[in-house]
């Protein structure tokens, strides 16, 4: 599994000005904490407006913009702010970056006070007047009046642009954070190649600082995703088909919130912990001890030699997994660990981490194996149709089952980072119960899908086929669990 740990942070200034700045900072501090409990906030109202059977809580409205289209969106907002504040477009861009391109907020604040005090509040980080030239071409200065020779400005800008800096280029004076507008920087850059790089970095920073836009994280993909309301929801690029979370641009991770998944991925990338974990691709049958390799996504294993049914994760008898509570997904805390030595606590912490990591990683591997099963199912459906053994509609239930299995297993995979960071208590017990129900339904469907894939050629309704009840009731219960 690839883990993208690159920072997606914008260069934009995170501070804000005005009388309500402290309140807004407090709201921002609490936002991540509320993500976990309010992940599906508003879903109930959406279900009321639509059919409960057809409603998908992960549905999220977004559009994919090309480079040209996104430039047009940015230019319209720049022109609006520049005209209202009576500043140049290059200065308007810096103001928009500072306010994360919330045009209405800028105009409201500008209208609620006199223009001069409003612009003076920005003067520490955003120039509100055009840079000036002192003593002809020998000295140049920003509105902060820190003057330097043109050659020094050129070297300063060239070095920073080569380092990949765009909007973040600021005054050379020590402790001066005043940003340099693009029409001041561009004439100082030698050569068109460096100027083109600077323009690309500016575009990147403009998009990353925009509260409604996100760059597609796909390799060399120029597309931009635009939404009305920025939330941690699933989006997919129309060009490269990359699926990711709009808020953090990591792989989509419902029901885990962005802050938790960042902590989890950092933990998984820490060699000091994962070095102690040996990812075994083979295990011994708990009954006859023959070595078994997992070649499918289902965790319900059957020994080819002694036909013993057992769980791949805990090696327990599979019959115990058919009970109401699917114990395999629940970590059993040691209640006396706080009274034991630091070494014992460290071992217990590692044991707990490996418990959740092994299940997280196992579901990821199952997804990859089940993707191969899905491909085989597609090929065999095509073969059946070509041999006049039914139509595409007749075999659509197999296609639907495999697609739903992938979606639900992906969700189940991301329940484990969520559960790892949850505090022990009634809320976690309820979550683990729901997690166990989903786990049981998924393994049941996975078992049936894999055996439906291994039917005897030309035999309709043969051994391994999903029954009529499996096709309807079984898939319905899985949808509800998911």
UniProtKB/TrEMBL annotation:
Instruction: Give GO terms: molecular function aspect only.
Output: ubiquitin protein ligase activity; zinc ion binding
Classification via PROSITE patterns: TRIAD (PS51873), ZF_RING_1 (PS00518), ZF_RING_2 (PS50089)
Q: Where is this region: Disordered?
A: 1-44
Where mainly found? cytoplasm
Checking Pfam families in the record gives: Ariadne, IBR, IBR_1, UBA_ARIH2_N
The residues covered by the RING-type domain are 115-332, 288-328
Q: Which SUPFAM superfamilies match?
A: RING/U-box (SSF57850)
Q: Can you cite a GO biological process for this protein?
A: ubiquitin-dependent protein catabolic process
Can you tell me which family this protein belongs to? Belongs to the RBR family. Ariadne subfamily.
Q: What is this protein called?
A: E3 ubiquitin-protein ligase ARIH2
**Protein's organism:** Nothobranchius furzeri
């Amino acid at each position: 599994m690839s883990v993208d740990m690159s920072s997606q942070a914008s260069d934009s200034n995170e501070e804000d000005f005005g009388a309500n700045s402290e309140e807004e900072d407090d709201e921002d501090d609490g936002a991540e904490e509320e993500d976990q409990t309010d992940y599906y906030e508003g879903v109930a109202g959406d279900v009321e407006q639509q059919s409960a059977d057809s409603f998908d809580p992960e549905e999220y409205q977004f559009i994919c913009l090309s480079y040209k289209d996104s430039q047009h969106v940015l230019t319209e907002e720049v022109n609006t702010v520049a005209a209202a504040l009576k500043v140049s477009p290059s200065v308007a861009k810096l103001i928009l970056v500072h306010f994360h391109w919330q045009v209405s907020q800028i105009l409201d604040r500008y209208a609620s006070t006199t223009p001069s005090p409003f612009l003076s509040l920005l003067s520490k980080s955003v120039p509100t007047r055009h840079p000036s030239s002192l003593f002809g071409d020998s000295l140049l200065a920003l509105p902060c009046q820190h003057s330097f020779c043109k050659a020094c400005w050129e070297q300063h800008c060239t070095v920073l642009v080569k380092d990949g800096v765009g909007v973040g280029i600021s005054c050379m004076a020590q402790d001066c954070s005043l940003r340099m507008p693009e029409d001041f920087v561009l004439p100082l850059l030698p050569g068109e190649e460096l100027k083109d790089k600077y323009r690309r970095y500016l575009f990147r920073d403009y998009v990353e600082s925009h509260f409604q836009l996100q760059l597609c994280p796909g390799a060399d993909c120029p597309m931009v995703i635009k939404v009305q309301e920025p939330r941690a929801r699933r989006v997919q690029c129309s060009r490269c088909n990359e699926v990711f979370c709009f808020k953090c641009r990591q792989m989509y991770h419902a029901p885990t919130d962005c802050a938790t998944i960042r902590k989890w991925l950092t933990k998984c990338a820490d060699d000091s912990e994962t070095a102690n974990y040996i990812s075994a691709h083979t295990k011994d049958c708990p009954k006859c001890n023959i070595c078994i390799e997992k070649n499918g996504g289902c965790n319900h294993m059957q020994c080819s030699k002694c036909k013993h049914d057992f769980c791949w994760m805990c090696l327990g008898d599979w019959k115990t997994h058919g009970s109401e509570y699917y114990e395999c997904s629940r970590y059993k805390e040691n209640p006396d660990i706080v009274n034991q030595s630091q070494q014992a606590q460290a071992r217990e912490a590692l044991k707990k981490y490996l418990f959740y990591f092994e299940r997280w990683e196992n579901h990821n591997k199952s997804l990859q194996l089940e993707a191969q099963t899905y491909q085989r199912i597609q090929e065999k459906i095509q073969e059946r149709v070509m041999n006049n053994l039914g139509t595409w509609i007749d075999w659509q239930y197999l296609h639907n089952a495999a697609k739903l299995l992938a979606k639900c297993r992906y969700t189940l995979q991301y329940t484990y980072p969520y559960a790892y960071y949850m505090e022990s208590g009634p809320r976690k017990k309820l979550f683990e119960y729901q997690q166990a129900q989903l786990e049981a339904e998924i393994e049941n469907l996975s078992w049936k899908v894999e055996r439906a894939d291994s039917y005897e050629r030309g035999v309709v309704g043969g051994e391994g086929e999903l029954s009529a009840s499996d096709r309807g009731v079984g898939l319905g219960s899985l949808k509800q669990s998911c």
